[in-house]
Amino acid sequence: MIYLLDASVLISAHGLYYPVDRVPEFWEWLLHHAEIGEIKVPIEIFEEVKEGPEDEGRDLLFDWITDADVKEALLLKEEVDPTLVNQVVGEGYAPDLTDSELEQLGRDPFLIAYALADAGSRCVVTAESSKPSKKRQNRRIPDVCKGLKIRSIGTFELVKELDFSTSWHK
Predict the structure, then answer these.
(1) Comparing C-alpha atoms, which of 150, 138, 132, 148 is closest to residue 3?
(2) 114 phi and psi, to 5 degrees?
(3) Disulfide engineering: 130 pairs with which of 1, 21, 138, 142, CB 3.0-4.6 Å?
(4) How many C-beta neighbours within 10 Å does residue 91 have?
């Protein structure tokens, strides 16, 4: 199984519960799983994380993700299939989105398209929560994935599935 990370996973982990400078074990664990091919980030999502939210902690996440070894291990080394991106947009969001609505989608359709390329062995990981009532460009990643029969999990499910742990000894 390859877990494809959404930008929200890295940004939320750093900003809320696993800051790069406070829980380095989490980031080492991510890197380890990236090196063995279990965790990957498509280039479109990588760029989104690099651009990241402007806050005081952004530099630490930026430094981590742009480290040459991290980037090499983390990046999914394939190009997106434009046909699959179109399928994700048309079937997952709406077939008649306006240009403005398409712009609001951001890079999510790319992430989902990479998973759709091999849905049996890929899983999308996102910090977004399901909101089935949302429509068109406002649909959430878990709901789009469900409609396209792509497995989607949250950060803490990933942590559990790949057995992240840290210990503190007094």
Answers:
(1) 150
(2) -60, -40
(3) 142
(4) 13
Structure tokens at 23: 């829980």
pLDDT tens track for 119-160:
999 999 999 999 999 999 999 999 999 999 999 999 999 999
In the chain, the DSSP E strands lie at 2-5, 39-40, 122-125, 151-153
Boundaries of every domain in the chain? 2-77+155-161, 82-150
How confident is the model over 2-55, as pLDDT tens digits?
A: 999 999 999 999 999 999 999 999 999 999 999 999 999 999 999 999 886 555
Residue 124 tokens read as: 């999308």
Using a cut of 0.90, tell me whether the model's pTM lies above it.
yes
- Compute φ and ψ for 5, nearest 5 degrees: -85, 135
Edge-first strand order for the sheet with 122-125 is 39-40, 2-5, 122-125, 151-153
